[in-house]
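Protein modeling request. Please complete all fields; requests missing the sequence field cannot be processed.
Requester role: graduate student
Desired output: 3D structure, token encoding
Chains: 1
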Amino acid sequence: MAYVFSLVLIELLIVAWIDFKTHKISNKWPLLNTALAVVFYLTFRDLYQFNWEIFIFPVGFIIIGFFLYLVKIMGAGDSKYLASLFLIIPLEFHLPYFEKLVLSTIITGAFLLTYRILKNGGKLKAYLINHYWEGVKVTLQSRFSYAPVIFLAWLILGLNIWR
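Delivered output (163 residues):
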């Protein structure tokens, strides 16, 4: 498991850095993950057993990610990347990693929301007093790169595995 964890960690670090700098995740990463999944399932049979359950999270991320993309909450690259990432994660770690992903998303979102409130407090107060809801929405709205959050979740999972 250590070699898979390390490989995913390196990939996530690279993708997080690229996403942070460009706000885009290239389609080459999901393609690479899909190819790696085929290699892993054929090579590491002790860690990877092929069955229908391995597709629950990937299909879920494609479906939910599509809707999140439509309402401009998540980028299309993020959902495609997450779906493909779950293909290279052994099945026994799908649920624990998903839990860490939710946790890291909540922590990051809360931090960014608090930062925006503190940074724009006076403006927000004026918008709230005047019931200018569009101004409140625009002021609090924050687009951020999601791949670093995915990376953070992987680090948290690793800390929990190797304690």
